[in-house]
Amino acid sequence: MSPAPLIVFDKVWKTYGQGEAEVRALAGIDLAIGQGEFVAIMGPSGSGKSTAMNIVGCLDTPTSGRYGFMGVDAGRLDRNRRAELRNLYIGFVFQGYNLLPRTTAVENVELPLIYRGVPAQDRRALAMKALAEVGLEDREHHTPAELSGGQQQRVAIARAIVTRPTLLVADEPTGNLDTARSHEIMQLLTRLNEEYGLTIVMVTHESDIAAYAGRTIAFRDGHVASDTKKLEAA
């Protein structure tokens, strides 16, 4: 018997506004993502992909239908309970890095641990381990201004994984990077997925970036237009 999916959309609708101003962002989506999958979400502007990502990350809730995360009906939780889910189980990586500018790399990585109340000595050890996992153990005292864009994104990834989340939500993680640095970041995410079994759900508009994922879901007009899995190598 196969394990229950980590993420389930069951007839999920999301609408904004009312009457003539109503916008239907998601129109009855059915979707399941298993533990350990690496999924790319694509689609044009207004397709619903960002709305779906916000629901996946427990940043938003469906208007109707069910969003299940780790067996919990997360869409029915209040704001505080959803914040608990995010803090305990979900890491986030954004296009703009979102690092504190006057704070060193290791201090940026420590931030989620501060929110959890982890003692200072333990925080530093865990943050250094996460920096080592992204290849920046020798840059711990550098501020973002002293790091390249690719290095800043590595710090952001270290911050996202320092709490050992179940799910990593990545929103255009290579959007601000050149081609070479983009592929370095994608190789890093692929390694984290393969070595640690980290489930990754990533929004991207670039097909060569989506190709790193094991599965690509395309949205259009609030619907899933296609859902394809990469063929395993023989």
UniProtKB/TrEMBL annotation:
The UniProt record lists the keyword Phosphoprotein: no
SUPFAM superfamilies: P-loop containing nucleoside triphosphate hydrolases
One term under GO cellular component: plasma membrane
ABC transporter domain segment(s): 7-233
Keywords in alphabetical order: ATP-binding, Cell inner membrane, Cell membrane, Membrane, Nucleotide-binding, Translocase, Transport
GO function term, MF aspect, one: transmembrane transporter activity
Pfam families to which the protein is assigned, alphabetical: ABC_tran
Superkingdom, taxonomy of origin: Bacteria
Family: Belongs to the ABC transporter superfamily. Macrolide exporter (TC 3.A.1.122) family.
PANTHER family for the chain: ABC TRANSPORTER ABCH.1, IMPORT ATP-BINDING PROTEIN
Annotated protein name in UniProt: Putative ABC transport system ATP-binding protein
Lineage summary: Bacteria, Pseudomonadati, Pseudomonadota, Alphaproteobacteria, Hyphomicrobiales
